[in-house]
Every structure is written in structure tokens, then in C-alpha cells.
Amino acid sequence: VQASNIVEEYKDVKFRYNKLSKHLDNITNCIEDKEFSVTAPIEIYYDQLNYMLGYIKTLEKRAKFENINLD
């Protein structure tokens, strides 16, 4: 696997993580606001966020071992 693929994957997952995190902040801060309604139990979204964070950390570890700059 090329380094550029790992960097692209890392940036994509990190972008999606940040997007979901902001969305969950909006939901918890504006729970009454219908604009930020959710269709599944909120715990599932937090599970997803935690798994994404674990994946981000795994990619960071892998990049370190493979001498890949993720910036």
C-alpha cells in the first residue's frame, strides 16, 4: 500500500470523525431543535465516534512504524 493511500484514508476518516463530532455536539446542545434530530439511539452515534477514533489512532500508529507523515 502506498503512503499516499494511507494519508488519504487518514484524512478522510479524521474529516468524517470531526463532522460527526460536531453534529453530536449540536444534537446535545440543541436537543429540542428538530434540525438536529437523529433516527437511531444517540448511543449508537457515540459508539460510531469511538470506533472512528480507534481507527484514527491505529492509522497513526501504523504511519509511525512505516515512517509516513500524515500532515
Q: Whole-number average pLDDT?
A: 88
- The tally of beta strands, per DSSP, is 0
* Low-confidence segments: none
What is the count of DSSP helices, taking H or I runs of 4+ residues?
Answer: 2
Quote the beta fraction. under 5%
Largest sheet: none
Q: Write the H/E string, N to C.
A: HH
CA distance, first residue to last residue? 18 Å
The Rg value, from CA coordinates, equals 15 Å
Helix coverage percent of residues? Answer: over 70%
Structural class: mainly alpha
> Which term fits the overall shape?
elongated
Topology readout:
Layout: H1 3-29, H2 42-65
Report on the architecture of this protein.
With 71 residues, this protein is mainly α. 72% of the residues lie in helices and 0% in strands. The chain has helices spanning 3-29, 42-65.
Gist of the model:
The protein is mainly alpha-helical and 71 residues long.
Defining key terms:
71 residues, mainly alpha
